[in-house]
Write a structure and sequence with these properties.
The complex is a heterodimer. Helix content of chain A is 35%, strand content 30%. By secondary structure, chain A is α/β, with parallel strands linked by helices. In chain A, strand 11 (246-251) and strand 12 (255-260) form a beta hairpin. In chain A, helix 2 packs parallel to helix 4 (133-145) and helix 3 packs across helix 4. The longest helix of chain A has 15 residues, at 163-177. By secondary structure, chain B is mostly helical. Chain B has one domain. Chain B has helices at residues 2-17, 20-49, 65-88, 93-98, 102-105, 111-144, 150-177, 181-201, 213-223, 230-254. The chains are: A alpha/beta, B mainly alpha. Chain A binds chain B through residues 13, 18, 43-44, 47, 50-54, 69, 71-72, 74, 76-84, 86-87, 95-96, 98-101, 140, 143, 147, and chain B through 2-3, 6-7, 10, 13-14, 17-18, 98-100, 102-109, 256-262.
């Protein structure tokens, strides 16, 4: 069952399309990642899903079971959440809860619960103006959850955080996954791999690859050879460019990563290559690609 | 209905915490006291510091009560309006520029409630400040100069309040329309000054205009009766206020909350 379906979603700014015929289908009960390099149109897409921006063309359909204003069913955390600095953390979440339709008593109760979930118990009486970036991010998650939405949308929730803040937020998202559907954007594949079920890789406003993460991993894992040499390998690498067993190649001065079709043929060809041997191999390793390589390949090429 | 109260309370709390509820009334209080007091002492001041030759027998008549009240209104119309405009120029534009409106508007918040609650709060603050300032002005006028029938004072003050409502609505309207705080302030002040000036220069052409309201309240202080075409200008002003609120809401709805990504 899909919570949100977009069809041919398009957004144009002064003639250039940031989002270009995007088809998404966000399923209920799982965590979905919108993955792509900076400028791929992720934030624009999320802004249209939340209703903050109007699509130039295309449609957004929310699950028929949830009628009325779709904002009721969505909790949203922007990439750079901006709060009223004069409020305390507690006041803000209560305010957000009341705007989401809770009574004052319910909102207060829910706030209590959420602030301890996100670990802001100690600073809830402090003005938000004095919060750190990580605290604001966690407060932002609390305000997104306060009205018990069906779907929470997080825009780059961990990108601006230090490693500890990042770990905290990812851990929190893992907990939330049990209770609610999550859609989040990121440009770091690793974050997506850690907690997601579905991913959509977008580039230039279009979906390039989509599907179940485990399935994608299986489908796109290709045998790979890592090569390291003492002498520069750069010049030599041109000589294997047109071999039929080669899929993709990428490297620096002394290192080369080669994705291949047939591992046996490739190994044979490489190990019997006289010129390569003269470059003094220091490392020859056979492995499988990760999605990272796929991501790089898709988004860079 | 509930949501209106929540949004209104937020405006209220914000204005209390950043002291708008202190310094705006304070300005009106000061203006309200200074005008009658200086009118009372003006003859003495002129006698002592006016630089008139010794022994010249000049009489400076005290102004009448209605005159002092009218002059107070004049002060409110200049400095008071300036303060209101500066205090509220960012009411919508400021939230949009800082992005604090984003997390509010992704909640199921009605755009009508968002704008109207802001209008209600601004108007309440403006009218309260004016009332307390004018109350003090009347008190000192009665004490130092002369009494004016209470009903004239109240009627005149109520009429003048409509002009203040017009000004607050104008600030809100421009704050929805434009991004720049300075632009909002300049436009609002410019328009109020032009309307007031034009109305006093060519009253015949601008019988309908909100700028006539001040002179109507002057004549109410004087005689209890407003000038000619009083209802015309009052109803035009009210229609303009309602129209501007509606246009603000429509414009706010049509404007995308987020126009670019950061």
């Amino acid at each position: 069952m899909s919570l949100i379906i977009t069809e041919q979603l398009t957004k144009t700014f002064n003639g250039t399309s940031a989002v270009d015929g995007l088809n998404l289908s966000i399923k209920e009960g799982i965590c979905t990642a919108l993955l792509g390099p900076n400028g791929a149109g992720k934030t624009t897409t999320l802004n249209m899903l939340t209703g903050l921006m109007n699509p130039t063309s295309g449609t957004i359909t929310f699950d028929q079971r949830y009628r009325g204003d779709r904002r009721q069913f969505i909790g949203y955390l922007p990439q750079y959440p901006k709060f009223y600095g004069w409020m305390t953390g507690e006041e803000y979440v209560v305010y957000a809860g009341q705007l989401g339709g809770l009574s004052k008593i319910d909102a207060t109760k829910k706030t209590e619960e959420l602030l301890s979930l996100v670990g802001l118990d100690d600073s809830k009486k402090k003005r938000i103006a004095g919060y750190s970036g990580g605290m604001k991010q966690r407060l932002g998650i609390a305000q997104a959850l306060v009205h018990s939405p069906k779907l929470i949308i997080l825009d780059e929730p961990v990108s601006a955080l230090d490693p500890i803040g990042r770990r905290d937020v990812l851990e929190l998202m893992r907990k939330l996954k049990e209770k609610t559907s999550i859609l989040f954007s990121t440009h770091v594949l690793h974050d997506a791999e850690e907690i997601c079920d579905d991913i959509f890789i977008v580039k230039d406003g279009k979906v390039v690859i989509e599907g179940d993460l485990v399935e994608l991993q299986r489908k796109y894992q290709k045998p790979t050879i890592y090569l390291e040499t003492e002498e520069s390998i750069e010049y030599w690498s041109h000589s294997i460019k047109n071999m039929d067993w080669l899929r993709h190649m990428q490297g620096t001065k002394n290192k080369l990563t080669i994705t291949v079709n047939d591992i046996d043929v490739a190994r044979e060809a490489l190990l019997s290559n006289e010129t390569l041997r003269k470059l003094k191999i220091t490392n020859f390793e056979i492995a499988k690609t990760t999605l990272e390589d796929l991501f790089m390949e898709v988004t860079a090429g | 209905m509930n949501q209106w109260i929540i949004l209104f309370n937020k405006e209220m709390k914000e204005a209390i915490r950043n002291f708008k509820w202190i310094w705006i009334p304070l300005v009106f209080i000061l203006l309200g006291i200074i005008q009658p007091v200086t009118s009372y002492f003006l003859p003495d001041i002129l006698k002592n510091f006016g630089g008139f030759p010794e022994g010249s027998m000049l009489e400076f008549p005290l102004p009448t009560g209605p005159q002092v009240l009218a002059e107070t209104i004049g002060q409110f119309g200049q400095i008071g309006v300036l303060v209101i405009v500066l205090a509220f120029m960012g009411i919508v534009a400021g939230e949009r520029n800082s992005g604090t409106n984003i997390m509010v508007l992704v909640k199921p918040v009605s755009y009508v409630a968002y704008i109207v609650s802001k209008w209600l709060h601004m108007s309440l603050l403006a009218i309260s400040s004016f009332s307390i300032g004018f109350l003090l002005a009347s008190y000192y006028t009665f004490q130092l100069i002369e009494s004016v029938p209470i009903s004239y004072v109240i009627k005149g003050a109520v009429v003048y309040s409509i002009w203040l409502l017009f000004v607050t609505t104008l600030v809100l309207f421009f704050s929805v329309l434009f991004k720049s705080n300075a632009g909002v302030a300049a436009l609002t002040l410019g328009i109020t000054i032009i309307i007031s000036l034009m109305s006093s220069i060519t009253p015949d052409l601008l019988r309908w205009s909100p700028g006539m309201i001040a002179s109507h309240s002057h004549s109410i202080f004087q005689s209890g009766e407003a000038g000619e075409y009083f209802w015309l200008s009052i109803s035009c002003t009210i229609v303009l206020i309602i129209l501007m609120i509606i246009l603000s809401i429509i414009n706010f709805k049509n404007k995308e909350t987020v126009t670019h990504t950061t």
